[in-house]
């Protein structure tokens, strides 16, 4: 499942680049407007790429960082929706933004739930050992933290 989330994040980063940069630049060029006139400046895609990579190359800090990024993303998106939805102005730009944010919200809600549900089964490796060896991480060997007694 961790691999699913990593690839979901890679897909979201790519999608964000297309709808916030490539499509607006292409549109501006086609209508003869300044190149950056429709660009929606956003650099969360870099964090999504890094988090996806981090999930695939698990380290002991990955759990805490993934949890923090998920919580922050959810709060930011819910806040943006609360500000936008009372009086939405639907254009091609806001519709693209809204649909993208729905998928980002879905990804991070699922990731947060997964992290909470499987916390005890996620590895906390140190050094060069990757967590991908755990069955929860999509590997074949089992290496889990011991469960507390009692």
Describe the structure.
With 150 residues, this protein is mainly alpha-helical. The chain has one domain. The chain has 4 helices and no strands.
Write a compact overview of the structure shown.
This protein is an all-alpha fold.
Q: Would you identify the regions where 5 or more consecutive residues have pLDDT less than 50?
A: 125-133
* Strand-pairing-aware structural class: mainly alpha
Query: Secondary-structure element order, as H and E?
Result: HHHH
Number of helices: 4
Any chance you could write out the topology, listing elements then pairs?
Elements: H1 2-31, H2 44-56, H3 62-84, H4 92-117
Helix pairs in contact: 1-2, 1-4, 3-4
List keywords for this structure.
mainly alpha
């Amino acid at each position: 499942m961790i691999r699913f989330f990593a690839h979901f994040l890679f897909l979201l980063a790519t999608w964000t680049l297309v709808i916030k940069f490539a499509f607006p630049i292409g549109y501006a060029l086609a209508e003869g407007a300044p190149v950056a006139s429709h660009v929606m400046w956003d650099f969360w895609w870099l964090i999504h790429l890094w988090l996806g990579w981090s999930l695939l190359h698990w380290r002991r800090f990955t759990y805490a960082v993934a949890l923090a990024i998920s919580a922050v993303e959810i709060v930011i998106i819910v806040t943006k929706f609360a500000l936008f939805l009372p009086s939405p102005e639907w254009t091609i730009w806001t519709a693209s933004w809204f649909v993208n944010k729905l998928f980002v919200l879905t990804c991070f809600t699922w990731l947060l739930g997964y992290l909470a549900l499987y916390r005890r089964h996620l590895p906390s490796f140190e050094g060069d050992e990757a967590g991908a060896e755990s069955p929860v991480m999509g590997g074949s060997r089992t290496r889990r933290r011991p469960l507390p007694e009692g």
